[in-house]
Amino acid sequence: MAGEVSVSEETKSLISMLVKEANLSGAAHIKYYTGSELGDGYSSERLAVDIVDDDKQLKLYLKCAIPLTPERICINTMYRHEIDFYKVIYPTYVKFFEEKGIQDGFRNVPKTYGFCEKKFREIIAFENLKAKGFRLFDTKKYMNDSELKLVLRTFAKFHAISFGIKDQRRELHDSFCNDHPCHYEVLKPIGLENFFAKGARDFVAKLDPVEDRNIIEKFSNLEANLLSTFFNLEGQLSSYSILTKFDCWINNMMVLYKDENTEDPLDIMLVDWQCITRASPVHDIGALFYAVASKEVINNYRYYLKVYYDELSRRIRELGSNPEILYPFSILEKEWKIYGTYSIGLAIVLLRGMLAEKEDLTDNVESSDALDSFFSGSVASEKKWLVRAKHIARHAIEHNLI
User: Fold this and answer.
1) In whole angstroms, what separates CA 180 from the centre of its chain?
2) Fold of 134-398
3) Residue 108 contacts residue 160 (beta carbons within 8 Å)
4) CA dist., res. 129 & res. 127, Å (int)
5) Residues whose CB is less than 8 angstroms from the CB of residue 392 and which lie 6 or more positions away in sequence, other chains included
6) First to last CA, the chain
7) φ, ψ for residue 26 (rounded to 5)?
C-alpha cells in the first residue's frame, strides 16, 4: 500500500464523526493512504483509511473533491448528484423492491458511511471494496463471457427498478430525473468536449487512406456527430427514457472473483454515480459493450442484447409491471441503432485510454498537453487500439449504427 498522506480538516472531521458512530474509542489508530492509481479517478482525490481500535477495525475509502477553480464549478454539481444518489435515490430503490418481497434485487452499490457536503469540499466515505477482495477489471483484456454477462445483468436489475418506479410511481421517477438533468453542457469548461473531440479526430487521422477507405467515408464526421450526441442529449430522448447511471467508464465497476487465480466473477459493485440522468438504457450499456468485447462477441451482439433483455424483462415482471409495454425488445434493438453514434464513438475514444500505459494517463483532461499525452501513447498500445477500434467501426457500418 502506498505511504501515508496528509489530509484536509474536513476529512479529519468526517473520520472523527464516523469513529464515534462506530463506537470506537477516541484512541483509535487512524492511517490514511493514497486510494487509487493515476488514471483511476476523475477530478477527485481518493484516500484509503484504516481505523483500528483494539479488536475492532474499520476500512474505508474516501472520495474527496479537489478544491475547485471557478471554471470547474460543475464538479460541485456532480458531487451533489452523487451524494443525492446514495442518500435518497438508492435507498428508495431498495425500499421499492423490498416492499415487493424481492430479496435478490439491485444491491450492487458500495455501502456509504458518511458525507461531508461542504461546497467544493465534498467527501463521500465508502466501505473499502478493495479490502474485501473486489478489484478493477483489467482494462487491457477483453471481458470474458461470465464477466460481460454479470455486467449486463447487473445493469438490467438497476434499469428494471427505474422502469418499475416510472410505471408505478411516475411522479417520483420524474422528480429524480428532473433533479438530475444531463450536465454534459456544464462539463465543457473542464475540457470534456476537447477530450472527446481529440479522440474522435485522432482515430480518423490514423486510418489508412486505402485500406480503411470505407471507414474514413463513414466516420469523416465522427467528431461533430459525437459532440452533438453528447451535448444535445435531452433533445434525443424518447418516451422510453429512464433514470440511468450514464457513466460507462470501465473503472467505475469493481468485481469480486472466486479466487485470485481465476476470472470467474462472483459479484460486482457499480461506483461513481455522479452522472445520473434521464437517458436510454443503451447509454449505460452500449459504449461499455463495444469497449470491452472481443471481435467474436461483437459479431454476436444480438445474443448479448438478449442476455440483458431477458434479465430486464424478468426483473420488471418481478416488480409487478409489464416489460412488453415499458420497454419491448424491439425498442431496445431500435435504440441500439438510434444511439449508435454515442455507443460506437465513445467506445473508440475510451478504448484508447483503456489500452494506454499508466504513464500515458492523467486525472486532468483540461490542458492541451494532457490531451496530447493521452492520445500519443506507446506505439504498442496504439496498434492494439487501432485494431480493436477499426473492428468496432466496421461492425457499426455493417449494422447501420453510425
Assistant:
1) 16
2) Aminoglycoside 3'-phosphotransferase; Chain: A, domain 2 (3.90.1200)
3) no
4) 6
5) 290, 298, 344, 347, 348, 351
6) 44
7) -65, -15
Distance CA 250, CA 137 (A): 7
Q: How far apart are CA 4 and CA 21, in angstroms?
A: 24
pTM value? Answer: 0.92
Angle between helices 145-168 and 90-99 (to 10 degrees): 80
User: What pLDDT digit, counting tens, does each position of 39-54 carry?
Assistant: 355 567 889 999 998 8
pLDDT of res. 34: 84
3-state helix, strand, coil in the chain (%, to 5): 55, 15, 30
Q: Are 301 and 352 in contact (CB under 8 A)?
A: no
Cβ atoms of 39 and 353 closer than 8 Å:
yes
Q: What does each C-alpha distance from 115 to 15, 18, 122 come to in angstroms? A: 10, 10, 7
- State the pLDDT at residue 234: 80
Q: In what order do the strands lie in the sheet with 265-270?
A: 135-136, 253-257, 265-270
Distance CA(241)–CA(278), nearest Å, equals 6
Of 242, 246, 245, 277, give the one whose Cα is nearest residue 163. 242
Domain ranges of the chain: 9-126, 134-398
Dist CA 353 CA 374 (whole Å): 7
Length of the chain: 402
Residue 88, phi then psi, degrees to nearest 5: -120, -55
CATH number at 9-126 = 3.30.200
